[in-house]
Amino acid sequence: MQMKKKSKVIIIGGGIGGLSIAPLLSQKDYDVEIFESENTLGGRANIIKQNGFTFDTGPSLLNYPWVYEDYFSKLGKNFYDYVQLVKVDPAVNFLWKDKTNLQLSSDLNTLSNEVSKFSENDRYGIIEFFKNSQKKYDLAFKHLVTKNSSNIFSWLKNTGLKNLFKLGLLNNMYSEIGKYFEEEKVIEAFSSYSMYLGDSPYKLPGFFSILPFGELQYGLWMPKGGMYGLVEGLIKLNKESNVKINTDTKIKKIITEKSRAVGVLLDNNKEIFSDLVVSNVDSRSTYKYLLGDKVKTKKYKMTPAVYTFYWAINKEIDSMTHHTIFLPENFKKTFNELFKENKIPEDLPFYISVPSQTDKSLAPKGKSSVFVLVPCPVISKSTNKYDEKTLDKIKDKIFERIQIQNINLTKSDIIFEKIWSPDDWGRKFNLYDGSAFGPSHNFFQIGPFRESNKSKKIENLFFVGASTTPGTGVPMCVLSSQMTLEKILSGKTHV
User: Fold this and answer.
1) Cα dist. 110→145, 202, 248, 357, 428 in Å?
2) Most CB within 10 Å of its CB: which of 181, 217, 280, 285?
3) How far is CA 466 from the centre of its chain?
4) Residues in CB range of 34: below 8 A, 6 or more apart
5) What is the Cα–Cα distance from 182 to 184, expressed in whole angstroms?
């Protein structure tokens, strides 16, 4: 008896999204092959190793561990057999120029004491914030975030009209958070998450107030060995799932026949045919570079580009916690400069991660691995040139601010450094316009308004990762793999 030939799926890109969907497809009896242009897997969640120092290139903390637990369980696996987690607490330390700070902890008692430094009423505000945000969080993930909907009506119907007000969809993020707190600095800290969602908290939907709650409620974690430990866990899972993985293999284009994806053309001009193609490359980059703009696509507002610094430091930095966010004096002005005026803010917002504070194996004894991320406008809109002059200015501003905060770190402490500009990020990972986190998350770029997991223009082409639903962030990329699988299994050729 002749065995039925398996349907073949080609996955373009071995980032978190690609590595997540491949085992799911293999479980459904697809023949799955990943093609990654870099020599390492992980996409933006990559790794740099040099002279005993280890740097995660992108995500620096793991949030929403339940997402990974659920994902691995769908494959009959235990997440903690693949990835060991270390809790990071305090999770985040926010700093202002006037030397005030706010340390976030997943322990509610500790956190309430911390916010009471600013206002005694905020001690009670944080309790109310937790109580109401839990309801929003559950509603959002049950009815909105993970739901494939082709239009706004079916998407909102999932939630129910009465719940729209509870979710804060009709309010902005800053105002929604401001319901619970008197102190502006507390509101600013919780609202600052919007920077990586691609817009001002004065414009983003209020339901994104669930982001700081989610990190506080479920804690912030780091895999042993750094964030790349998650990637290594996914690679192990892929190998066990008989997924074929190719690195250092660049895709030149997606082969189409009559607006139908039928395979890929490699950089060496070899053609590989398949029944389905799943792109873990940004959707805009997929259309522009892999399909040659054959189809007209929606123009999305994008999340910021970034400068990232990877510093090997010749000492331990006792005055810093694992993750520190430096906020500006004029919060609203800074967001306006970044997202409206498209310039690098004068009062630079940025964060510094020192993962070797949590895991000593990431740096030689007595030394530190340091990662700095600075958001800036996307390449095409930036009023700043991304040249050496701009780079030097940014670096000077970082160290000026470090000095203001009395942190024991100077330029002379750097043993060596690597720096990735917006152009570097765009080139390395095919990021459209250098955008580090994909399309922005304003109301008209989430849910059914965001790029669907299934192409509306090319049959048998699907998307996974930050550029599609549900959105940016490592857990969202894992969730997107499940939403994309749902689209594939539906057997429909059009959304």
Assistant:
1) 30, 29, 47, 21, 41
2) 280
3) 7
4) 11, 13, 14, 18, 19, 22, 41, 238, 243, 244, 245, 246
5) 6
Q: What is the CATH number of domain 1-46+222-298+451-495?
A: 3.50.50.60
Q: Where are the alpha helices (H) located in 405-444, listed in sequence order? A: 422-429
CA distances to 13, 179, 185 from 133, rounded to whole Å, are 35, 12, 19
Distance CA 33, CA 241 (A): 11
Section 384-407 average pLDDT: 97
Alpha carbons 434 and 235: distance in angstroms, whole number: 26
What residues does CATH 3.50.50.60 cover in the chain? 1-46+222-298+451-495
The pTM assigned to this predicted structure is: 0.95
Q: How confident is the model at residue 343 (pLDDT cuts 50, 70, 90)?
A: very high
For the chain, give every residue range classified as CATH 3.30.519: 301-429
Residue 88 has pLDDT above 80, yes or no: yes
CA 13/CA 249 separation, integer angstroms: 10
Which is it for the CA torsion 472, 478, 483, 485, positive or negative? Answer: positive
Q: Say whether pLDDT at 411 is over 90.
A: yes
CATH domain 301-429 topology: Guanine Nucleotide Dissociation Inhibitor; domain 2 (3.30.519)
DSSP classification of residue 268: T
Are the CB atoms for 466 and 445 separated by under 8 Å? no
What ranges make up the beta strands (E) of 80-154? 85-88, 92-95, 101-104
CA distance 102 to 113: 10
Statement: residue 298 has pLDDT above 70: yes
Quick count: other Cβ atoms within 10 Å of Cβ 396?
12
Number of Cβ atoms within 10 Å of the Cβ of 4: 7
